[in-house]
Amino acid sequence: MVNTLPRRRANEPAGSYVYAAPQQSKPRLVTVEQRDAKRQQRKTPVLVQVNRALQAALIAMCGVAILGYGFDVADSNKVGKAQEQVRRLSEQNSELSSNLLKVVSYQGLQDGLVGKSGLRVPEEVKIVPEVSAPKLIVFKPAKHHLPLMSSY
What we know:
2 strands; mainly alpha
């Protein structure tokens, strides 16, 4: 910064001041080689280099994350379409299977019946007493022998 405040000289009267002119340096030409040499001599601090490397790594990782998310969305879309197709094919398969079972099971038997066919509510309900199960004969070996059976 150039000093432009008024200064008083030693041998001048008290009321007169002299202003100093700003000192300007003369322009000088610098060759390209000298300029490049000065730039090469300057080095950035280690902390700044580490910071730049971490920023580059962070940007790269964000790119990888975005790319992975895009692949995940695309695969989810494909899986959703495949599940929908499987569901439709399963429904179609169930319908065709039931139709085939009807054709194979009955083969026109119900067409010859007169009136209603299939399950219906009975007209009369009978209440019968409960019957106990018959007692089983328990096998007790006389000695350490297995029973005679045809499967041995």
